[in-house]
Write a structure and sequence with these properties.
With about 950 residues, this protein is an alpha+beta fold. It contains 14 helices and 46 strands. The protein has an eight-stranded parallel barrel with strand order 33-34-35-36-37-38-40-41, surrounded by five helices. It has a five-stranded antiparallel sheet with strand order 1-4-9-6-7, with no helix packed on it. Strands 2-3-10-5-8 form a five-stranded antiparallel sheet, with helices on one face. Helix 3 packs parallel to helix 13 and helix 8 runs parallel beside helix 10.
């Protein structure tokens, strides 16, 4: 399994040109009061500000003096950079305080400026004071310009609010001081502080920003864990008030400090901090044993305040890790959290963990930076994680399902509503398809013809250039949108061309669908997206082909997907695919006595495979085991069968974890998939394998095949032979193309009855050109043509905002292979449990209704034991959430029950899902019961029930 994160086609700086609408999302500044600043002594002001910062040290703004460039800051849809006041001048401007100042340029809207997320560093009820030095510059700028400090308050399920903080009139010939204050009664989901205001085209200069809390005395930075120790914290001496008592070095020395670096490093809170020094390995750090204070099956939340010191790097990754020794002396390392730490400021490290079993020893420690770099720790808190109440179901009003939110999609009004992204040329031409793309037809049904007109994009000097449209006001939060269009390119002489429908959501890039084009004909592009946080701006644009290649787009459709309407169709399809007419024929007694007899039929289990990923540590938790065996009939092991797990060092074999999982499955009649024999992606392969020469690597591959498949012959129903061949090529690059075929052939020889699968990700969602259904089909046919006995197709199913028609289209294309299709690693993710439940229902209904799908494996279901956040069905301590309840409800829906009377022929008929049944019948006050199976089949199934 691998989760792929895509990056935008263009550089981050290119986003600065894209804000094209003229409507601001806030009230105009002229309606707000502006404050004036005196023209007093700049040096005196500077001295006051520096004095406040040094004495109070409570500034919640990170990198407040821009000493670290724009680290922690972000230009809001414009350009930004930092100028050194000592080394150079900008338009003759010198820094007002310290060494540096920031310049915000290429501003096309008054609200564009410089922002910083301060969510984690403020708290409701506290009063905050804001102070900053500002200046403006622009051609022919003779009048002062208003500059404003603003808070953007984002809420998951409601509109974004803006809070005025303070303002000042800025001049182009001197620095001015902007002051303000704010307080929040309640805490939004996200708080962003930013400076804005001058007219478009005017550069904003910012020097030294301070936001301090007047309500906090002891903590110097409210972001970073003024966390109460209290009785809840299982860490002893968490702030080093008792020196280094209870602490120890892990392979290194530790020391106590009240200051460091010639007085430049002070504790963030409290009086002391500790350092892990003389580190010679990345795993060296500071640790504390917590064996007697940690309880199994309880979720713990970890919060640490850390930074680095010394070494050659200004930043390094710091990790919180748990070392656990089981009763049988087996060791386990649990990664809790990691964060990029700096040598300039304290940062917060947060994470969660849970222990399934009863360990003999547990140690928590901090590690990660390179040897020679000290780890500094100001505080560490480990306490029972508070239960977070689920988000309420989103209220989405007045949804126009199936209605295109793109203006002038047919370009019948020429280019009204469209603009060019970058310096390319847009024009309208004729000759595009007049019918909707198939995936859109599946969702929308009959539709009036398209106009046959399309947008032609020429003079493209960058891959990201293309047509764009603002859709901010048309997007509804938590609503899933389907994307569909016809696209074409002018030339493929330089190779296949990638076309992408993308969304710019503030500074984030969202993939709305991608396709690779290898000819000059029209192609369908399809995808989906959903936005779960209130954006200030949303733009859709089409991009991707190489510079100089013309791009054509016709009939772009973005519309809300009507999932409930789709479900009605799927239920009908499910009845055809997964149910069968059954006739129970009763024999053995006088049939005349059966006429009034009442019959009750109950299905005890659906035979369709619903499975889950499990891991060795899970089975130490009896609550996990019960939920697993009660609700799944198939399994796949997360890591325990992978080569790096079974042979971490050459010749050092570990099969006991896989054996334990197999024993559990066997005892509960649960089938198992073998995942995976090999994994083609290089970073997943253990270092000793990567270091082998060609001859030794070939020998190691053969030993892996013979060792694994001989040991487990007949015990796994499936094997993923070489995982993710569309995304990796380690073995093929080193051993030649034939190695892939050889792996399949050898596996088949060693275990002839096992089904051998290919397995890859992003096949079903339209967002990855490397693994499109068409490419996957060609890949499989190529393997088969070379003699590889491929007998199953794995579709991983790590999907976001699924749309049924897009998923179904991929399944239809793969279904042409005539091989069984399985969703092998299905998971969906949303911060809202109800939305997550909806996504899961989409995928399960599509799978269950499709005739080519023969099984579904979830990639886990228990919080903290899944590869994706916000994907779990059960929380860490065993409570089933809304997504889990939806899964259970669907499992019940797909069980058949019937009752009635035997007819005059001694028969009782019903239509039921495939699976195991039990029938009960009372004859002459005597109860008879019998089990029977309903298998797949075209015609009615007659089952003889003997009454004797």
């Amino acid at each position: 399994m691998r989760r792929s994160w895509h990056s935008c086609f263009k550089s981050p700086a290119s986003h600065t040109h894209y804000r094209a609408d003229s409507k601001s999302s806030k009230e105009p500044m002229e309606n707000q009061q502006c404050g004036n600043s005196s023209n007093g002594d700049i040096k005196e002001k500077t001295g006051e500000m520096m004095k406040v910062t040094r004495e109070n040290a409570a500034n919640i703004i990170l990198n407040h003096d821009f000493a670290d460039g724009l680290h922690s800051w972000k230009p809001n849809c414009c350009n930004g950079y930092v100028v050194s006041g000592e080394a150079s001048h900008l338009y003759g401007v010198k820094a007002n305080t310290g060494e540096n100042f920031a310049v915000i340029s290429n501003r096309t809207e008054s609200w564009q400026g410089l922002e910083q997320d301060i969510t984690a560093r403020i708290s409701p009820g506290s009063a905050y004071t804001v102070s900053a030095y500002i200046r403006v510059w622009g051609p022919n700028l003779h009048e002062p310009a208003g500059v404003q400090a603003t808070l953007k308050l984002e809420y998951l399920n409601s509109e974004t609010n803006y809070l005025f903080v303070g303002s000042a009139l800025a001049h182009n010939d001197r620095w001015e001081k902007l002051e303000g204050n704010f307080s929040l009664e309640s805490m939004p989901d996200r708080v962003v502080f930013y400076l804005e205001g001058p007219s478009p085209g005017v550069d904003l200069l910012i020097d030294f920003v301070v936001v301090t809390s007047s309500s906090t005395k002891e903590c110097r930075d409210e972001k970073l864990a003024c966390v109460a120790d209290g009785d809840e914290n299982i860490i002893l001496n968490p702030k080093f008030d008792d020196g280094l008592k209870n602490w120890a070095g892990r392979g290194c020395k530790i020391a106590l400090h009240d200051t460091l670096g010639d007085g430049k490093i002070l504790p963030l809170n409290g009086q002391y901090f500790a350092s892990a020094t003389e580190r010679t390995q990345s795993w060296n750090g500071i640790q504390q044993e917590i064996t007697d204070r940690v309880q199994r099956k309880l979720a713990y939340e970890v919060t640490a305040v850390v930074r680095i010191f010394g070494g050659t790097n200004s930043t390094a990754d710091i990790r919180a890790t748990l070392w656990v020794q089981a009763q049988n002396k087996r060791e386990q390392y649990i990664s809790i959290a990691h964060s990029q730490a700096s040598d300039k400021e304290w940062v917060q490290l947060q994470g969660k963990f849970l222990l399934n079993g009863t360990p003999s020893s547990v140690v928590i420690y901090l590690e990660g930076p390179p040897a020679g770099t000290d780890i500094l720790v100001n505080s560490l808190v480990v306490k029972h994680a508070a239960k977070v109440p689920p988000s309420p179901p989103p209220v989405i009003e007045n949804v126009a399902f199936g209605v295109n939110i793109i203006q002038n999609s047919s370009v019948s009004d020429n280019l009204d509503g469209w603009f060019s992204l970058g310096q390319c040329a847009l024009s309208v031409a004729k000759g595009s398809p007049r019918v909707l793309p198939p995936m859109a037809v599946d969702s929308l049904g009959p539709h009036e013809p398209l106009s046959g007109r399309y947008i032609l994009v020429t003079n493209r000097s960058q891959t990201w250039m293309g047509p764009a449209q603002m859709i901010t006001d048309k997007i509804k939060l938590f609503l899933t949108y389907q994307v569909s269009a016809w696209v074409r390119v002018s030339s493929t002489t330089s190779g296949p061309q990638n076309v992408n429908v993308a969304l710019g959501v503030d500074s984030q890039w969202i993939n709305g669908g991608q396709i690779e084009i290898s000819d000059d004909t029209w192609h369908e592009i399809g995808g989906s997206f959903r936005i779960e946080k209130q954006p200030s701006k949303v733009m859709v644009y089409v991009q991707g082909p190489s510079a100089g290649v013309d791009l054509m787009i016709a009939g772009l459709q973005i519309f809300p997907a009507n999932r409930q309407a789709r479900f009605k169709l799927l239920k009908k399809q499910t009845d055809k695919v997964r149910r069968r007419d059954v006739v129970l024929k009763f024999t053995g007694l006088d049939s005349s006595g059966l006429l009034p007899t009442f019959v009750k039929v109950q299905q005890t289990q659906n035979s369709f495979p619903f499975g889950s990923c499990i891991s060795r540590t899970n089975i130490d938790n009896e609550d996990f085991v019960k939920l697993f065996v009660d609700n799944f009939n198939w399994s796949v092991f997360g890591n325990e069968l992978k080569w790096p797990w079974t042979e971490p060092q050459q010749g050092n074999l570990n099969y006991q974890d896989a054996d334990a999982l197999l024993d559990l499955c066997k005892s509960h009649n649960i089938e198992a998939r073998g995942h995976c024999i090999f994994w083609e992606v290089e970073y997943t392969i253990q270092s000793w394998v990567r270091s082998l020469n060609k001859t030794d690597l070939m020998a190691a591959v053969q030993n892996r095949l013979s060792g694994l498949l001989t040991r487990y012959k007949g015990k796994f129903r499936h094997y993923d032979v070489n995982n993710e061949m569309l995304h990796g090529s380690f073995y093929q690059d080193r051993l030649g193309k034939d190695i892939r075929v050889s792996m399949f052939k050898t596996a088949h020889q060693l275990d002839p009855d096992v089904t051998l699968f290919v397995n890859d990700y992003h096949v079903e969602d339209g967002c990855d050109t490397r693994s499109s259904p068409e490419k996957y089909v060609r890949h499989i046919l190529d393997l088969q043509a070379q003699g590889a006995p491929v007998s199953g197709v794995g579709i991983q199913g790590h999907i976001d905002s699924p749309v049924g028609s897009v998923v179904c289209s991929a399944l239809d294309k793969l279904g042409t292979l005539g091989l069984p299709l399985w969703f092998t690693e299905l998971d969906v993710s949303s911060v809202n449990e109800y939305v997550r439940a909806d996504d899961l229902e989409v995928m399960l209904r599509e799978a269950f209704a499709h005739p080519a799908i023969e099984g579904v494996m979830l990639w886990g279901f228990w919080e903290l034991f899944m590869s994706r956040d916000n994907a779990h069905l059960v929380d860490a301590e065993g409570s089933v959430n809304e997504a889990g309840k939806r899964y259970l409800a669907l499992k019940q829906e797909w069980l058949s029950h019937a009752h009635g009377h035997v007819d005059d022929k001694g028969e009782f008929g019903f239509r039921g899902f495939h699976g195991t049944y039990e029938v009960e019948i009372m004859v002459h006050k005597k109860k008879f019961s019998q089990k029977f199976m309903v298998d797949k089949g075209e015609g009615p199934l007659t089952v003889e029930i003997k009454l004797q």
